[in-house]
Amino acid sequence: MIPPGVIRRVSESTPLEDELAYVWRKAMRGAGLNAYELAEKCSVSPGELEQMLRESRPESLVRKAAEVLSLSADALLGLLRYRPVVPILHGISRLDMPFEEDSVNAWLIRDEDHALLFDTGYLADSATRLLAMIGVAEVELFLTHDHRDHVGGITMLAPLLRKIHEIPKGQSLSFGSLRVKCIDLAGHCMPTSGYVISGLSRLVCVTGDALFAGSIGGCADAFAYQMALRNIRQQILTLPYDTILLPGHGPATTVGQERENNPFLA
After folding, report:
1. Is the pTM of this model over 0.70?
2. pLDDT band at 27, cuts 50/70/90?
3. What is the DSSP letter of 232?
4. Domains, in order of start, for the chain
5. Which of 186, 117, 197, 188 is nearest to 151 (CA)?
6. Does residue 58 register a pLDDT over 80?
């Protein structure tokens, strides 16, 4: 039997979801450019560009390619060292679960009387087994989007579900001291819902795959890419700097740190 995964604190530091090459290639797809076209715009050979995509050096080429792709060169150059720092926040658990060769997050947010689960993980029983380990017998479920790594566990969760909530964009629901507002984060997937949660000691936003620490979710084409960036800027970056962001993959982060260190947003 495959282990269900790991329960982590929101403050626990783990590697970023995207390697440098993924960041570059997501931006290239969003700009509608392949490696040969980007190399031509940067006046270098395809081989030189491929090396830069893997290593983000030399700096002069990084800055030229970043300008073409409307990325932050400083954030790209610092990405290998970037590890967001998030304070300890009681009431949030990260369910870090297996997804093929990688992992996927679901987030559990609780007050004294309610347990809210955001996404379910990929394997049918991962979330169910992790929730049993921490003694959660009943949850309110919210889904960010319908990709298989985020909804695969929904069937086996049925005995634990009070309700699967679908909140219209811009509207809110309350659960004891917790208030959940749904925001539009379409782009990586259409539709995508994000959730802004108040009632903890910090404002929190579940971003799904719209935004990762140091990156964003991949988009199918330039139209979806521009929609994704617009929604992130309007719906997430307008939140207070110390808002804690809970992505669908990789570590938690904050609005302020992404505004400074995310190549797509800095």
Report:
1. yes
2. very high
3. I
4. 6-14+89-261 (3.60.15.10), 20-81 (1.10.260.40)
5. 117
6. yes
